[in-house]
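Sat 14:20. Reprocessing the chain from the morning session after the first attempt stalled halfway. Input below, unchanged.
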Amino acid sequence: MNKKEVAEIKKNFTDSSGFFTLNHIVSVYVDPQKNIRCNENKLYSLIPEDEGTVMLESLKKVLGGSVGKNLVEYSFPNEEYAEDGAQNILYAAVKGKLEDETANAKLIERIINNMEYEMAYTLIMGYCSYSIMTKDKNDESYDDAAEEYNFIVTAVCPVCTGDDGLMFDSESNAIVKKANTDLIISRVPTDGFFYPVFSDRSPDVNRVMYFTKTPKKPNISVVEDVLGCNFIMSCQSEKETFQQVLTDVVGDELSYTVITQVNESLRDIVAKSKNETELPLIDDNKLHNILFDAGVSSEKLDALPAVFKDKVGEADGLTAENLIENKTVLATPEITINISRDATDKVRTSVIDGRRCLVIDLDDPSISINGLTTSLT
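Finished this time. Tokens:
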């Protein structure tokens, strides 16, 4: 699913949309020992409005965040099409519309037995239908719908006791610590997935979308052990891999100028693709051009293809948006300087009186030191 397709489903994921229906909801409470303490299957229309609103909100969050960071799409390996494979289990649950208790049990069992989770949690699973709007060549929607997209959204919501702090006890006229033993189910899921994906205006049963609240620390067990897919790099891993490639290829030619120019080139690539549906990827050819423009020598660039393949593997490339640094940080053991993206050209390195120096151009001699305004004369 690209950005536009995710946005379309998310926009219509509401009771007020005439194209969307949340049909059944399965909610399962699992304690830290992986025991099922509660398992309910209800028609969404029969759930009290206040409860249903919260469940709908949690499920919708599985479609939230950025594609390529919070949302990553995976295709199933061949072995997951077997009877006990993830694709087959998910397909059966969708086909059963979450009304088939046998299909539901297999999916729930796979999640509980394979997901690594350190605390109690609640699974909220919704069977949804979206009437796919017909679009013309100008990407304008008609009011009619040609077919229906049926899918399951699963949210993993942590459960914990709340801490309400101190309270005033009117009987003893004292301020005391409130003891709270209520198990509160978070509205915000830490993980989730929806299946099948919505691609080219139709369902794709061969792919699944994984959601994580924390892109830098995704729950790999959900991807690999629950969904049976081959985990690809997180956004943080992509950035770290990119830095390793730069270090190994550019080596002693890495300088302040090269690093900041590479970052600006990445920003330009992302900005130019802002209105595109697909995320721009950086492969070895694009990186070659970026580094060449930044002044890296041809001798260094000769090693790029081999290093890139060794670090990145068989992936098509690295997501450009995940490689960008929002600010430039210069650091020594004693000094750290944060430079905003608009001020990188005001900093340069130089040799003065035989010493290597960092020079900062000041348009205004007035500066702030420890919150106090002063000036350099």
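The chain has a mean pLDDT of 89.
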